């Protein structure tokens, strides 16, 4: 598994979900609204 | 605080080693502090090299430091809180910056990022000998729109 801070890690993470990047992009806002916002 | 023989009491520059680490290493970009505060055989969990191996020692950490600052030249880390117990100290942080370089493996997006993270460090003789990091890199990638870049 590549480093979590780089592009390769993100690509591998997306692949591991079996979802497309577009599908994950649509899902993520709801996930982050539940309390993972920075600041 | 440390009392000198003259009776003068010197205040420490930083409240904790974690404040010193994040201020000197990240906010002041003082790479020399990495060797001063990180033991030669230190294990840094949660931040890995390009192959996914956890970082070991100052040399490996410096490579990550350099690449991350290349991606975010104005990076800042704010230590919001620390808790210590025995030889361990934990810090709760917020990382902020603008993506102005290609150190993450893709071109700068010029986007601002702000994500949280925590680090627990075990300290011996004034140096970090092991650290466990949990920084929210997925939020960082989301703020950069990295997923969109993958789908292009």
Structural commentary:
The complex is a heterodimer of chains A (39) and B (152). Chain A has 39 residues and is mainly α. Chain A is built from two helices and no strands. Chain A is globular. Chain B has one domain: Nuclear Transport Factor 2, Chain: A (Roll). Helices cover 30% and strands 40% of the residues of chain B. Chain B is built from five helices and eight strands. Chain B has a six-stranded mixed beta sheet. The relative contact order of chain B is 0.16. At the A-B interface, helix 1 and helix 2 of A face strand 3, strand 6, strand 7, helix 4 and helix 5 of B.
Secondary structure elements and pairings:
The complex is a heterodimer of chains A (39) and B (152).
Chain A: H1 7-17, H2 21-33
Chain B: E1 2-3, E2 9-10, H1 17-27, H2 32-37, E3 38-48, E4 54-56, H3 57-71, E5 76-85, E6 88-98, E7 112-124, E8 127-135, H4 137-144, H5 146-151
Parallel strand pairs in B: 3-8
Antiparallel strand pairs in B: 1-2, 3-4, 5-6, 6-7, 7-8
Summed up:
The complex is a heterodimer of chains A (39) and B (152). Chain A is mainly α.
What gross morphology of chain B would you assign?
elongated
Kindly report the average pLDDT value of chain B.
93
CATH class of chain B: Alpha Beta
Q: Main sheet of chain B: which strands, in order across?
A: 4-3-8-7-6-5
**Largest inter-chain interface?**
A-B, 24 and 34 residues
Order of helices and strands of chain B: EEHHEEHEEEEHH
Question: Helicity range of the residues of chain B?
Answer: 25-40%
What is the percentage of strand-forming residues of chain B? 35-45%
Total domain modules of chain B: 1
Radius of gyration of chain A: 11 Å
First-last Cα distance of chain A: 28 Å
Order of helices and strands of chain A: HH
Largest sheet of chain B: 6 strands, mixed
- Predict the CATH topology of chain B: Nuclear Transport Factor 2, Chain: A
The low-confidence parts of chain B are: none
Q: Based on DSSP secondary structure assignment, what is the total number of beta strands of chain A?
A: 0
